[in-house]
Structure prediction request, 202 residues.
Amino acid sequence: MDTPDRGAVAGVLLAAGSGRRMGTPKALVEFEGERLADRGVRLLAEGGCDPVLIVVGAAEVGVTGAVAVRNPDWATGMGSSLRVGLGALPTSASAAVIALVDQPLVRPEAVRRLVEAFRAGATVAVAAYGGAPRNPVLIAREHFAAVSALAEGDVGARPFLRAHPELVVRVACDDVGDPADLDTPDDLREFDARRRRRAGTP
Prediction:
C-alpha cells in the first residue's frame, strides 16, 4: 500500500575521489557538455530528492542546487564519504538515495523508481540491471547508523546490503539507464562514442 506520508527523501552524491585513473577528479570531468558533479546533482533532484548533498574531497566543487559537504578523509575511500553524507543530512530526511558521480548514464527515472519503492514501504531499495543490484541505492533513516558502521574502505553500502538481503528490494532499471562506471579517459571516449551512435552522428 502506498504511504505518501513517509517523509522527505534526500539525495547524496559521492564525488570526493581524486580520479587517479582518470587523471583528474571525476567530479570536474565533462560529459555531454556538463560536469559530472552537475549531472549527478541533477539526476537526484530530477528524480525527486530534496535536499541534495554532494560529498567532495579531492577537489572543491560547488554545484547550484546542492549543499557541498567536505570529507577530510576522502583518500580512505568511498566508505568515509558515505558516512559523511549520511551524517550531514537534516533530520527531516526520512531516507536518502545514494548515487555515484562516475555513473553518468543513469537517468532520473531510476531515482524516481527507488523513491516510489520507499513510498510503497521499502526501507532499502537498489536499482537493478539484468537482475543484478548496482546503483543508485535508497536507504531509510532507520538504517543510517548500521550502514555507516559497516562502510569502510571503498565499498560504501555494500557490506550492509550483503548482511541484510532480506531488506533489499531490487527495482528493475534496465530501461532507464546504464550503471557503467566512467573511470579512465578511454571510458570517456567510449561513452561519448555511444552517445554519438545513439544520436546518429559521426
Q: What stands out?
A: The CA atoms of residues 34 and 141 lie 31 Å apart. The radius of gyration is 16 Å. The domain at 8-199 is CATH 3.90.550.10 (Spore Coat Polysaccharide Biosynthesis Protein SpsA; Chain A). The longest strand covers residues 132-140.
